[in-house]
Known about the structure:
CATH architecture: 4-Layer Sandwich
Mean pLDDT: 86
Strand content: 15-25%
Radius of gyration: 21 Å
Oligomer: single chain
Structural class: alpha/beta
Number of helices: 4
Number of strands: 15
Order of helices and strands: EEEHEHEEEEEEEHEHEEE
Strand order of the largest sheet: 6-5-4-3-2-1-14-15
CATH topology: Metallo-beta-lactamase, Chain A
Amino acid sequence: MSQIYLTWTGCGGFEVRTDLVNFAFDPYKFGEDLATATPDFDFIFISHEHFDHCHPKTLQHLCRGDRIKQVLVSPGCCNPDGPVDEKYGDAAFARDLPVTKHIDKRFVDVAFPKYLSHIGGEDRIFPDTGTWDLGPVQVEVIESGENQRPDLPTCGYLVTLPHLDVSFLHTGDLTVPYRALENLRGRVTYLIHTKMGLSEHGAEDRSEHLVECVDLIRPEYLIPTHYRTDRVSDPIPHGTWPPDVTDANALIEWIRAKVGDRTQVLPFTAGITYRIDAPSRQVDWKWNWKKTWDVPPWRNDVHHQPDPQ
């Protein structure tokens, strides 16, 4: 039986390791997490140039050594003269672009989407077909839509591992679904969910976007990411963008309630690696019993001792 190891590293970062190939989506690391990260990826996929998705220091670290073969990036990552409109001020660093200022340009290829959103126009024509044969993995590029212009698309990636009959769709910061996503129906094992359907406090309910997206794609599993808590158990880098989540468990249950039986929600904790057994493609949810005491504390309370017989 083959094993696949999955890790949500915080923000939109997600890592996949197998016996044959390792790849990462939007890697974003800080401090000790960055210093101790192993540059063991064959491929890296970057959705757009916002620093929490295209992070120069992380890419510099991970693109060292002999393992890295290719980094696919959205056009904006190599186009400092035409960046995405900066809604968040410093979200698209002109000083950090192009990405080839930080990693060897021999590894970098610009990807354009195969599947286009009706918002920008389905009749647009881009320089490539949006499909990549990378040997052990096959890639199809979708339009993501995070603050983009019609002529400067951002990207999501469907990465398929034929030898394991498993696939991963990372949508980037896609917030509004579109009909071309129906081309992926029945072909996505794990949908890595970021912001689809989330609403800020007091804002308009956008949950229908999540339901529509899942309806269009019908993934086997949905993995929520790109939210932040302040728990020590969620080592998400300090300084990442919201949304802050006051109750992560409630968020997961909200997503479950919205998607119903359309898919199965897999709640990951950031920084924890989960094992997938192939061909079952189910997460190994084994747990360990850990005692914090030998004798329950209340047994030492004289007020709770049994009366002498």
